[in-house]
Amino acid sequence: MTILTCSKMAYIHLKHPSSSAETVGTVASSRPGFWFYACDAPLHVFHRQGKPTRTTKIHFNISRDALSYSSLLLLKLSRSLKETNGSKHPKKYSSRASDTNATLAMPVHQEDLANKIYETIQQNDKWEDVMTLEPQDLEPNLVVKVLNLQARAQNALRFFNWADRQEGYEHNTDAYYTILSILGRAKMFDEMLSILRKMRSEGCEITKSMLNSIVNAYGMGGKLQETQETFNLMEELGHKPSLIAYNSLLTALMKHKMFDKADNVFTKMAHDGVPLNRLTYTLKIQLLFVKGNKEAALDTLNEMVYEGCAPDVVTFTIVISYLCKLGEIEHAYEVFRKMHAYKCEPNIYTYNSLIKGLFIVGRAEDGLQLVNTMEQEGLVPNIYTYTVLIDGLCKAGNLDRANEIFQEALTRGLKPNTVTYNALIGGHYRNRRWDEATDIFKVMQENGCRPDSITYNYLIRGLVKRERIPEALSIYNEATEKGFKMNFLSLYGLARGLNRIGNHKDASIFFRRLKEVGHPFDANDYFLGVMSHSTVGAMDDAVGLLHQMISRGFTPNLTTYNMVIKGFCRQGRLEDASAILNFMIENNTAPNPDTYNILINEFLRQKRTEDADQLYLSALDRGVLPSRKRDVYLQV
User: Fold this and answer.
1) 8-state DSSP, 516
2) CA nearest 447: which of 418, 478, 480?
């Protein structure tokens, strides 16, 4: 027996189990009672308004036994249809499930119609202009079918919005749930939020299933704030968050390194008695490792097994990876061997973690051998495998072997990424093979691989060490134009290098940036910074560094004070220069003849001879004799 139903009728095709006789008929539910048209009668197909749209002559013979059998089936069907049609859709919105769930199947003509709509959308980009559909044919379950046929979320949204604009049609729960799920999977978060806001503004019911779908989409997409807001909305609406919602929130928190908040979520789950599944356990194990609680992480792995939740390859790989990072390679191998006991086959990521762990503990040859073992198991090394090898060999100082591995990756058709090139460039930089590092950078650019801040930092520091400061400055400008931020080692190298070649103007800029990033200066750094700022007239920065120097326990030397005084005098700011003189005396640094010469010369340049004379006498009182006699000053 086949029963195809829509909201106002049912089409029936019956076959008696002990007879070859077949029955075809319709049942209309527009009023109490049912009519069964059979026995040499035409089949009438009715739409919702009860008007026949086409008549097809179907003739057949049927036995009395078959009719009795049909009657029993119709009795069951009548109850189903009464339940389906007992309440009508409200004018604006229905929170009931659509006919897709309430009835046994979609009418054949509706299936055909859905496929035709899908084909029209695929074949014509301006399908809205040519789409013709009878109002009575547009139903929520048809919309759901068309939405699910779409391969592109953008097309699904266009059809959803088109249907919403049609007169006499309103989306139901299934339609809203379907479009929200599609948009969530496509990470079209703005559009998903727009649909949700529309529902709230129109007073539509937002079901728990919808919120689960939304929070899951946000969580898997790493949208932390939106995940938290949707999770909170579930509770505000009286829905108890499901395990899916908890897992989505935990996933987002872990991606954003919000480990304390993730810990609080686990505490809440334990308090509310929420059972954990494999994903939850895996996230908890990862969190415990991140927080440095290795023993608790391993206990959780055992608890997971005890509770009948078998770890999968992701769980095992996370445990192995963290044990390798801790240098516990033997313990990692022990977990690796346990995988076979659970019939869990290691994947490429498991092997990559072990290979990296072997290099961390200095077992480079074992790492290379494990690659061969992996290949024997049928796993092909990926670019991450080769990157681990190159990085490990570079750190071990075996650059020639690293270069061979790099060439092998290229031969295999693998495309090195930025991390691969950085490992190779960094290795050559650390081993002072700077020209080769520069050559690798050129190859990187030729192969269309974009450098990042790590790449530029290596290059700048290498150039600075070779005293190629102008080139380093050029690379720095290129990096900043692309939006990259250099670390303090690069800034520091440039600041000192520029100072050495007398480019105090640019050096001053870099010392200022070092201060902004919180670089911990030593006494010599402060001296160079004050010198650069004073030389180019950036006196506020010079004085700021001077005070910071003192506040951090460093004592400026006489040369440092003299540079600041000279900087103020160059700008004609004698009062500020005199204030620095008094400040240095108060801080027990005695001025020397150069200190007074700088000030007296500026007083005389400004024709302030009386002040120059007074300062000369003050110097004598302190036992300091300026380089020229008093009468020379007074004659100027």
Assistant:
1) H
2) 418
Distance of CA 282 to the CA centre of its chain: 19
Q: What distance in Å separates the CA atoms of residue 145 and residue 118, rounded to the nearest whole number?
A: 9
Q: Which of 25, 54, 85 is the last residue of a domain?
A: 85
The pLDDT tens digits of the residues spanning 66-78 come to: 333 333 333 333 3
Q: Please give the pLDDT value at position 628.
A: 56
The structural domain count of the chain equals 2
Is residue 356 in some structural domain?
no
pTM: 0.61
The answer to the question of residue 62 being in a domain is yes
How does residue 108 score in pLDDT terms, banded at 50, 70 and 90?
Answer: low
Reduce the DSSP state of residue 607 to 3 states and report it.
coil
Residue 583 has pLDDT above 70, yes or no: yes
Average pLDDT, the chain: 79
Residue 52 bridge partners (DSSP): 46
Range of the domain at 607: 557-635
Phi, psi of 16 (to 5 degrees): -65, 135
Is residue 433 within 8 A of residue 425, CB to CB? The reply is no
- For residue 603, give the CATH number of its domain: 1.25.40.10
Q: Which of 36, 68, 85 is the last residue of a domain?
A: 85
Alpha helices in 256-312 (DSSP H): 259-272, 278-290, 294-306
Report yes or no on 137 lying in a domain: no
